[in-house]
Design goal:
single chain; 363 residues; alpha/beta; five-stranded mixed β-sheet; 12 helices; 25% strand; globular
């Protein structure tokens, strides 16, 4: 190696070592501040409320606003989420229930939102995630609610109708589906395992690339990867986390039919969130069975100038051919315009349930 280059590299590496030492000192100073916050909360009887979704969202948005590169916002956001996760764990590691097993997209969503210091509690079904949080065995739950390709996750919506849990956050996860196998060529694949939604998200690719190969639906992508890891000729469609967990090579990457394939998850807890400055409110409502009833439900939102970002109908289950509407609106339930609209809805709707106000997802 050139002596001049070695000298220049030495100078820069010394700078990096010095910066690393400063970073370490600052990270520990931040951790001490987090511990101090916990002590103050304990003194005022708020020791159980260590996680504040609105505060976390505000911190991340502020950091993104300060970021001048070269690191992209996504990388900076990931780093600060992990810092906050580690600091929170000094008070009490949060237990997070999610649709398991380990290696699923739900695990990736839980880690994206709560960081690696959280205590992950995988569950067999979405119902179990709700029960785990309702029983207090986990502080929060992460459940899928809709996919940009396949639409709403009906079971999550149905459970929200009867649950006392509140939505306190949302996670938006970009979904990359990979074909993985111990085989080294497509010609050696004799079966493909995956969750039904993932098979649907890769339907056209499978028709083109593996025509006639049986597609077998299983309970999760992680289970698909496990099966493919032990069966000759088998492949799985799953995400990166499953590939890493089962040490299963990715034969073809990003085979999803829609390039912007995205899944949205709700974070559930026994409380919702305070105003963060950029929020959503989710609610369920039903209309009386008469002409123009749905229009009457939506009119208060328009009159108050509140924007609706989602409207989904589901069978009410209480009576044949009756429906409830799942609605997302922009703003927090304590915002004056939203508060006015909700008061008018409460007077006009046959049924109204506010599922929670929460910060919009920070990417």
């Amino acid at each position: 190696m050139n002596e001049g280059m070695l000298k220049e590299l030495g100078v820069v590496r010394d700078q990096i070592d010095s910066i690393d030492a400063q970073l370490l000192a600052l990270l520990n100073e931040r951790a001490r501040c987090a511990e101090h916050v916990g002590q103050i909360k304990a003194r005022y009887g708020e020791a159980g409320h260590v996680y504040r979704p609105e505060r976390e969202a505000q911190v991340l948005r502020r950091i993104q606003g300060l970021n001048q590169g070269p690191l992209p916002d996504e990388s900076v956001t990931f780093f600060f989420r992990e810092v906050m996760s580690a600091c929170l764990s000094l008070e009490n590691p949060l237990g997070i229930a999610f649709l398991g097993p380990l290696g699923t997209f739900s695990e990736s969503a839980a880690v994206k939102h709560f960081g690696h210091a959280a205590r992950l509690v995988p569950q067999t079904t979405i119902d179990d995630v709700f029960r785990e949080v309702e029983a207090g065995h986990a502080q929060y739950g992460v459940v899928p609610v809709e996919n940009s390709t396949e639409g709403a996750v009906g079971r999550t919506l149905d459970l929200l109708l009867g649950s006392s849990l509140k939505i306190c956050g949302e996670v938006v996860l970009r979904i990359h589906q990979h074909l993985m196998s111990r085989e080294t060529s497509l010609g050696a694949i004799t079966k493909v395992y995956s969750h039904a939604q993932s098979l649907a998200q890769c339907h056209e690719w499978l028709n083109r690339s593996l025509p006639g190969v049986p597609r077998i639906s299983v309970g999760s992508n992680a289970e698909a990867a496990r099966l493919a890891s032990i069966e000759p000729g088998a492949a799985a469609i799953a995400g990166e986390a499953a590939s890493e967990r089962y040490e299963l090579p990715r034969l073809v990457e990003s085979i999803e039919d829609e390039p912007n394939n995205t899944t949205r998850f709700f974070v559930l807890g026994r409380h919702d969130a305070g105003p963060s400055g950029a929020d959503k409110t989710s609610l369920i409502m039903s209309a009386a069975n008469r002409p123009g009833a749905v229009h009457l439900l939506l009119a208060p939102l328009a009159s108050a100038g509140v924007s609706m970002s989602r409207l989904e109908s589901r069978p009410a289950r209480a009576a044949l051919w009756e429906y409830v509407f799942y609605v997302d609106i922009e703003g927090h339930r304590d915002d004056p315009a939203v508060k006015t609209a909700l008061e008018a809805l409460a007077a006009d709707a046959a049924y109204l349930k506010i599922l929670g106000s929460y910060p919009q997802a920070v990417y």
